[in-house]
Design brief:
homodimer; alpha+beta; Alpha-Beta Plaits; 2 domains; four-stranded antiparallel β-sheet; 32% helix; DNA-binding
DNA sequence: AAAACAATTGAATATTATTCTAATAATTAC
DNA sequence: GTAATTATTAGAATAATATTCAATTGTTTT
């Protein structure tokens, strides 16, 4: 993909701010808040989507409601050569794995995993991770409590 | 807050699945997809919100577009006593800090931070973290590349 | 300054959201 | 087990929003 030009003005920032806080805010409301015509807002939002500045809209669901109570981070050392990320892509395919990051210094990855409980984690490690070629070792960190968990970016005030 | 009863049937699961994938899917579309009246869907969605099963709707914004290119994880050891989380709440207030987790075993927290670049990270550590009382030490892990980053939960197929 | 391009408005139409009532289904009480 | 209660749904009517498009205004480019 070619280098994209992100050319955002302060109106775009305002739209992003509103959307980041409530992705279901309707066009008419955004238009009212910004004092513009709905059609103009629609145009801008579409452009933000096309330029892949807004990547997706998602509902944040309470993990407790789906009985997914255990959050863990796992450091994974692999035999992946630098540049190659074969293991990473396999990890990314696992539904319980929410994040996969290639990290500096350790020849490995940091993954974030959400399971039912500790038995679910053990299952995952034994039956899923255990079957992936190239994993040399793992180090697991259990989350006792999550104080904050958001994806919100800091949006500039001025353009 | 009293213990909430989450009583979800397979229709709720389907709604959650749709919403999780695209939070801007409109009522009419959901209704059509599930073969139900829009009013019934609206009723259910409202209930899911009220029961705090759907926590919020957010737009995922491309960090590159806002020039936030560096992602880091920082382990923070503190003098917080078990049960007390004073430092955690201070950390949670920092806009660049997207996540704060109380982790097992280390008397500390794992935080996820998104900054402009490495100088932004240094700034944050020096000027913001450095001013928080009770932080004993930090260990920073830099993310070279993110292969996957989602909040999507695994939603049961059957009720 | 003119031309080319981009963004905005405003109005018209299509579609959706929302409300409400009646009917149905599911639970609970007795 | 039956009646009473409660929750859910459909369907129709209305309010509001989304979307399209032509005309206008604003912005760059040359």
């Amino acid at each position: 993909m070619a280098k994209l030009e992100y050319n955002l003005d302060h109106i775009d920032f305002q739209i992003l701010r509103i959307m980041q806080n409530n992705a279901r805010t309707n066009n008419a409301d955004i238009a009212r808040e910004l004092g513009m015509a709905p059609s103009a807002i629609l145009e801008r939002v579409k452009k933000l989507e096309q330029k892949e500045i807004i990547l997706q809209y998602n509902a944040k669901i309470n993990p407790l409601a789906l009985d997914q109570n255990l959050l863990s981070f796992i450091f994974i050392k692999t035999s992946d050569i630098i540049g190659e990320q074969g293991v990473a892509y396999l990890l990314a395919e696992i539904p319980e794995v929410q994040e996969v990051h290639d990290i500096a210094g350790d020849d490995g990855y940091l993954i974030k995993v959400r399971t039912n409980d500790s038995s679910g984690l053990v299952d995952l490690m034994r039956n899923t991770l255990g079957k992936i070629e190239g994993i040399l070792s793992t180090r697991t960190t259990i989350v006792l409590e999550t104080i904050k968990e958001e994806q919100k970016l800091v949006i500039p005030t001025k353009e």
